């Protein structure tokens, strides 16, 4: 609220201009991004040397679209990009812990193309997952290290001997 409107007329004050954030930008996947997400998933599968099943990979597209975009949402995905180049992705689903009596976001996969590793992309993707979990009111982010997730180094997280990771979120 401008208490002195006559002193600073609106037509003489230009809005501040902020330079774009350098480096990769992480955004939540939209319907227009699904083909890019699937291409990154295919790269991830090849890099992890996952056995290809006889089932057509596109057969679950309806379920994927429903989980990502139709209420109630059951899955979230993010893509890291620099300009128009997709560099990696993360995907998560919602879960509920009876022991902790609360929802958590389960990080299902996180992949950064080897060409782009070492540029903090993994950290930016993890930050997007953590931010979404907090927005949803989740108590934690959980993951299982293995074929879909290489060992993650997350400040404040715990990983047990079985590779089960948890990052508990502080209620604000």
Structure description:
- 23% of the residues lie in helices and 28% in strands.
- With 172 residues, the chain is an alpha+beta fold.
- It has one domain: Aminopeptidase, CATH 3.40.630.30.
- Strands 1-2-3-4-5-7-6 form a seven-stranded mixed beta sheet, sandwiched between helices.
- Strand 2 and strand 3 form a beta hairpin.
- The longest helix is centred in the C-terminal third of the chain and has 16 residues.
- It is globular.
- The two termini are 28 Å apart.
- The model has no long low-confidence stretch (mean pLDDT 83).
CATH superfamily caption: Gcn5-related N-acetyltransferase (GNAT)
The SS-based structural class is alpha+beta
Rounded mean pLDDT score: 83
What's the CATH first level? Answer: Alpha Beta
In the residues, how many domains can be counted? 1
Oligomer: single chain
Q: Spans of 5+ residues with little confidence (pLDDT < 50)?
A: none
> Which second-level CATH architecture applies?
3-Layer(aba) Sandwich
Features:
globular, seven-stranded mixed sheet, 23% helix, 172 residues, Aminopeptidase, alpha+beta
Brief summary:
By secondary structure, this protein is of the alpha+beta class.
Layout: helices, strands, pairs:
Elements: E1 25-28, H1 34-47, H2 61-69, E2 75-82, E3 85-97, E4 102-112, H3 121-136, E5 140-144, E6 158-159, E7 164-168
Parallel strand pairs: 4-5
Antiparallel strand pairs: 1-2, 2-3, 3-4, 5-7, 6-7
């Amino acid at each position: 609220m401008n208490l002195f409107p006559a002193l600073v007329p609106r037509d003489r004050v230009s809005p501040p201009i902020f330079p774009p954030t350098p480096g990769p930008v992480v955004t939540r996947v939209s319907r227009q991004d699904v083909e890019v997400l699937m291409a990154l998933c295919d790269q991830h599968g090849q890099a992890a040397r996952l056995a290809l099943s006889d089932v057509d990979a596109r057969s679950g597209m309806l379920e994927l679209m429903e989980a990502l975009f139709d209420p109630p949402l059951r899955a979230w995905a993010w893509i890291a990009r620099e300009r128009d180049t997709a560099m990696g992705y993360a995907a998560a689903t919602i879960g509920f812990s009876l022991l902790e009596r609360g929802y958590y976001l389960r990080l299902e996969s996180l992949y950064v193309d080897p060409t782009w590793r070492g540029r903090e992309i993994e950290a930016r993707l993890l930050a997007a997952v953590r931010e979404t979990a907090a927005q949803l009111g989740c108590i934690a982010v959980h993951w299982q290290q293995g074929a879909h997730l290489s060992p993650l180094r997350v400040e404040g997280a715990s990983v047990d001997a079985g590779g089960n990771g948890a990052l508990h979120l502080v209620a604000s």
